[in-house]
Design brief:
Layout: E1 2-4, H1 6-14, H2 22-29, E2 35-38, H3 39-50, H4 54-64, E3 68-70, H5 74-89, H6 98-109, E4 113-115, E5 129-131
Parallel strand pairs: 1-2, 1-4, 2-3, 4-5
């Protein structure tokens, strides 16, 4: 299972009309895998698009229709709390986005690989498997 972050979705939208793009190459290379967008990533993507225009929001909703949306539950909340607490104790929490941390907690909970181009946002998170579509 591959967990998709907001940046992946933004790059997917930006390159939707291109035949050759790193996002499309990643999707094709991993076509046998299930791609899931955690609800926090979907919300952040929709917020970004809604701030541009109603048309862009409709396009974003259409893109999300290609993915399963992963919901959070109490287990996700426990994992999020433990992860944030550990990062804080290790002085590596920094100014990380809470949305990114929730996405990481969901990916860990579901043993999913998180795909992003911004691996630095997710550095030093124990048990998180990362992939970048820019490394292809």
């Amino acid at each position: 299972m591959i967990c998709v972050d907001r940046i992946f979705l933004v790059d997917m939208w930006r390159t939707k009309d291109l035949f050759d793009s790193p996002v499309r190459d990643f999707l094709v290379t991993h076509s046998a895998d299930e791609f899931v967008v955690p609800v926090h990533a979907a919300g952040a993507f929709l917020e970004c698009c809604a701030s541009i225009s109603a048309t862009r929001l409709k396009q974003a909703e259409s893109i999300l229709g290609f993915f399963r949306i992963g919901c959070f539950d109490f287990d996700t909340a426990r994992r999020y709390a433990a992860m944030v607490s550990a990062l804080r104790r290790g002085s590596t929490l920094g100014k990380r986005s809470k949305t990114d941390l929730w996405i990481a907690a969901w990916a860990i909970q579901h043993s999913a690989t998180l795909v992003t181009r911004d691996k630095i946002h997710f550095r030093d998170i124990p048990d998180l498997r990362l992939a970048s579509y820019l490394s292809l």
